[in-house]
Give the backbone structure.
Amino acid sequence: MGQHRNVLRLHEDFATLRWLKDFEQDAFGFQQKVEDIDRRLGTVFIQAFDDASDLEHAFKLLDMFGSLLERPVIAADAADKYSVLISMFSRALDHARLIYSRHIQTELKLGSPPVHKNMPPVAGALCWARELRARIQVPFDHFRRIPHLCVSVPAKLLYDHLDSFSLINLIFFLCRYQEKLYADWSQTVSEKSQYNLTQPLIRRDPETKLVTVNFDPQVRTSFPVCWWARVWDHISMVMDDVHDLEQRIQKAKNNVEEIQTIVGSWASPIFVRRDCKTESLLSLEDCQDRLERRYSLVRESGQRIHLLVKENQSLLLADPASDIWKAYVDYVDEIVLDGFFTAIECSLKYLLENTDPKAGLAPLFEVQLDLVIPDLIFQPSLDPGTNDGFYNLVEGLLNDIYRISSLVPRLAEHSGFLHYQVRGCGAPSCWWQ
């Protein structure tokens, strides 16, 4: 009868869908909390956007929020800011057009383009045009990467207007300006250079009687342009190489730090008291399970370490047979060796501290004295010559601790050792290097 009533009660609960109502209430409460957090994030975004001083900071803010701006509540708060962002870009575009117009007027007035200090006329003008183009092209590229930009019709119309007229026209003028500069320079530099190369290298001034270099000023200005162009290409190439080198070195450094973290994870006692309680004995029942878990961890760690070292060889473009690479491997090998030293020391220190009579701790091992007429027998036996005695048990634990250093193949293969445990004598303390 009791089971029957329980079945009927469950049927009634299911029929009334009480559980469904509770679920709907919980889901509604969770949704309310999510919307509250979204509203707070929307407020943070608006305040941060209003504090942005220019387009660069505004786009950094958009990158920080990322896909959060696609959430309905936050998107509704941020919708009005896109028009403001486009207006900021429009003002920046107007300012760039003004800079271009003033530059052209100054060039017509002076007869040569104004350039940065210590730069040749043509190369300096080309550099200026490239900088002005980047000043408007970079933020426009940011606009094109915003998938939720056109959230309103006015914003879309303004975006299309900028894309169709102002930006394209200014970029066209800058490209044509660069092409004209290069065309004018290339048409005259060859002729002037050839003419001056046929003249004497030195000449005497008829008035001062001084000897000077016979080098036309126009040719003297054309050569720095060529030199600057070559230097700029070389600098760009070197910058790419340095950037690639920096990335590879940073990745190699991160790999070494990962190796240090891996070997640091071994530094915990393998064998501990039962349930980690100070009054309990050493847990001999699960010793084998703990040992297998630790061995498995060390083996997997060793495989990962070898992969990281191999990756560093590729990153550093190292020759595995070179002395420099062997010295580097010795450095990493020393890290792993120190890791084994710390791991073994940790387990041994635990056994020493918990068997120190001066520490006043509870016994770590248990030996029973049984009366087997007519003798008294210790279980396990305290006789050092007994195979299953206490001394054999302790020595087995020590051997298991030292054996972890044999689970990882040696990184420094040139050392002549297969792994980090070296059998040099009978005592376990001599089994590792």
Observations:
- Confidence is low (pLDDT under 50) at residues 150-155, 424-433.
